[in-house]
User: Which sequence fits this backbone?
């Protein structure tokens, strides 16, 4: 058992629901912008530029702009929600803007934290992939397939004998990468609370609390995943292309952005406060 103090999962989940209205109110503008962008952005561009050319949506420049705007709105929303969660009534003094429209030093620190964590995560994932690719290609299982991906699909479909070694390797790699992502989930709230970039040092915060953090994330994300599965398999196939499908997509985006996002932020904020308080004793 870990000697690290562990936070109360029930208390953190309860705090997430209690803090959700305040979080939505504090970050309403960036949440609304993020929802509009992810729900209607591509459609608007296709209709208003070059008469609705479909290929426009996949232009590299437009893709980059969409990614940048998504990141900016998400960071603004995080900055607003975590300011309220950490500083309460003093959130305005910490730079909280009207309806969450602010982009100051805390937001820049959030970006810096995300970049550092992303680079670290990318290096780990690349190392896992390279090791797998080298061993897989040397094993001879690739056969006459034109590339590693097709050979891997063949292994999954065949799943006989030594195939299981590589199948279990992939499953284990995905579990490890999910575990690593959970280890970093407290980095944004810690960055706001401590007034500095918290990246790799977030691993220490989550030490001894990974399974509770994963359980909380699973609890909030599971309903969204179930809704998405039901909609994709039972609603979308029977709907004609057009406004109906766009409305369903917008509804799912609203659930993710206005419900799940604030709930997770509230959960992480409560977990962080509990961990810090416990370790200060």
Assistant:
């Amino acid at each position: 058992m870990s000697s690290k103090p562990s936070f109360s999962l029930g208390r953190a989940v309860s705090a997430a629901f209690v803090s959700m209205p305040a979080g939505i109110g504090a970050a309403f503008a960036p949440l609304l912008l993020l929802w509009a962008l992810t729900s209607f952005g591509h459609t608007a561009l296709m209709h208003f530029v070059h008469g609705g050319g479909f290929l426009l949506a996949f232009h590299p420049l437009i893709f980059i702009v969409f990614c940048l705007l998504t990141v900016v709105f998400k960071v603004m929303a995080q900055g607003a929600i975590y300011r309220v969660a950490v500083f309460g009534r003093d959130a305005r003094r910490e730079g909280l803007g009207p309806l969450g429209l602010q982009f100051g030093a805390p937001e820049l620190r959030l970006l810096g934290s995300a970049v550092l964590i992303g680079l670290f995560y990318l290096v780990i994932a690349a190392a896992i992939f390279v090791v797998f690719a080298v061993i897989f290609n040397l094993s001879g299982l690739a056969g006459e397939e034109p590339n590693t991906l097709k050979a891997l699909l063949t292994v999954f479909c065949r799943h006989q004998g030594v195939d299981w070694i590589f199948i279990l390797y992939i499953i284990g790699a995905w579990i490890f990468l999910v575990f690593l992502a959970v280890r970093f989930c407290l980095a944004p709230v810690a960055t706001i609370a401590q007034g500095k970039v918290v990246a790799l040092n977030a691993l220490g915060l989550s030490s001894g609390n990974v399974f509770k953090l994963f359980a909380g994330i699973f609890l909030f994300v599971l309903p969204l995943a179930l809704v998405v599965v039901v909609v994709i398999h039972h609603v979308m196939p029977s709907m004609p292309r057009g406004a109906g499908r766009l409305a369903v997509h917008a509804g799912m985006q609203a659930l993710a952005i206005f419900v799940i996002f604030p709930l997770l932020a509230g959960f992480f904020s409560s977990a962080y406060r509990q961990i810090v308080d416990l370790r200060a004793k």
Summary: The chain has a mean pLDDT of 86. The radius of gyration is 22 Å. Residues 80 and 100 are 5 Å apart (CA to CA).
